[in-house]
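W.,

You were right to be curious about this one. When I first looked at the sequence I had no strong expectations either way, so I just let the prediction run and decided to look at it fresh. Below is the sequence, 194 residues in total, followed by the output.
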Amino acid sequence: MSKETERTNTSERLIARAQAGDSAAISTLFRRNALALRRWAHGRLPHWARRARDTADLVQDALFQTFRNLDRFDNRGKGALQAYLRQAVMNRVRDELRRVESRATIDETPERIAALPTRQPSPFDLTLDVERQRKYKEALTTLTDDERMLVVARIEMAYTYEQLALLTNRATPDAARIAVRRAVLKVAEKMSDV
């Protein structure tokens, strides 16, 4: 059995135990997911919206609420919990933005309002983002399964090189770093060709 399969099985068993109320399993899942989620969420809450809460607070809240109600979580396999947690954080970021925006008072001066950063991307930015995503997805299809897993795990899921080494059966975190670098360079090259 590969380490990746073993880790997936371990995660699935941990989730099942946590859903059954095992507090040790909940603690382990919390620790496993907290760091990667904090890295991923860093900076997602704009500075202008950080009055009483920071992104780290939103992550903590998402983790606590998710693990408090883990019995309702539908485990759909590898990466499902991390995806669920990311969505929970994004929901909290949106809620916080709405809360901050609703506090704006009528007597705010036009200069103050104009000084606030725009909250919505421009149509041009949206078009660029869609185009970049299309190119990125197309470039991913040209990679091997191993390369694609490395890129997605590192870039989209913020896995550490230590985690990637375990996940992909590489001897050291440095070996995983080099493999990720090569795969990312291939993606960048393909994106510029497309």
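Here's what jumped out at me. The domain at 120-194 is CATH 1.10.10 (Arc Repressor Mutant, subunit A). And, maybe more interesting for your project: The CA atoms of residues 19 and 157 lie 23 Å apart.

Coffee later to discuss?

I.
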